[in-house]
Design brief:
- Chains A, B: Its main location: cytoplasm.
- The structure is a homodimer.
- By secondary structure, the first copy, chain A, is an alpha/beta fold.
- The first copy, chain A, has a domain at 7-101: Cytidine Deaminase, domain 2.
- Helix content of chain A is 47%, strand content 20%.
- Chain A has a five-stranded mixed β-sheet.
- Chain A is globular and about 40 Å long.
- The N and C termini of chain A lie far apart (44 Å).
- The relative contact order of chain A is 0.16.
- Chains A and B meet through helix 3 and helix 5 of A and helix 3 and helix 5 of B.
Chain lengths: 150, 150
């Protein structure tokens, strides 16, 4: 088996994040990958849809549509930012076994909870993801706080 | 202060669940209550919208729209069924302090996690909620399993 090219999929999540930024939204993106193929891509839709539930990961899950448990159990979810409690909960609900995180310096989500439930969390510590969030938060701190319930 | 009439709000959540059932969906409903007033109502939309993220509680949050952290911290969320990991995660993300659960005999969600994080979880053990789910699961066991990632 070839080694998985995490960067390729993280780049797809970053592209989603940038799409969100271009729409005036919060630049967090995600892709859901099944057997080496992206089956759902998404980005935070708080601003665009007035949505408190469509974080990047949630939007990727939503866009992947209804899947069986068997599919989720063969998936990896990529996200530009460490997954919050809601997104981590969705990962636990569906039994997604691997989460690849762009960065967690801006925000440390529920990585510990995920690991305690047997999810493999891999951190890429991407400077691009970090700088994207730092720049965004510098511009719109209140919007960011709203997104994480602060 | 008058005692809170939990049953009144649970009834509103049950009405949402029944609406979902009438649409061919999964009968789980929820209302988000702020200072004694419902600010968001919702029901599971898996079938109706092909949505894996719009559980009852998530739909209620979505329909309440964007709220500040200050509002969420004064909210109570009512749900006909014990909240799964995703919905519990959303409750934790937004710091909703009180969750009123119709029943947890059909499905035990993340009540322990919620309590461990300081959320007050109140169980009403409603026969109406229980019977509604039992009847539904008897009819459509596969749809139910899909909804809880089994």
């Amino acid at each position: 088996m070839e080694p998985i090219d995490h960067q390729q999929f993280l780049n797809a999540a970053i592209a989603e994040a940038k799409k969100g930024l271009g729409e005036g939204g919060i630049p967090i993106g995600s892709v859901l990958v099944h057997q080496g193929k992206i089956i759902g891509s998404g980005h935070n839709k708080r601003v665009q849809n007035g949505s408190p539930v469509l974080h990047g990961e949630m939007d990727a899950l939503e866009n992947a549509g209804r899947q069986t448990a068997a599919v989720y159990r063969e998936c990896t979810i990529y996200t530009t930012l460490s997954p919050c409690a809601m997104c981590s909960g969705a990962i636990l609900l569906y039994g997604i076994p691997i989460v690849v995180v762009g960065e967690n310096r801006t925000f440390m989500g529920e990585e510990e909870l995920l690991r305690s439930r047997g999810v493999h969390v891999e951190l890429l510590d991407s400077p691009e993801c970090y700088e994207m969030m730092q720049s965004f938060i510098g511009d719109k701190p209140q919007l960011w706080n709203e997104d994480i319930g602060v």
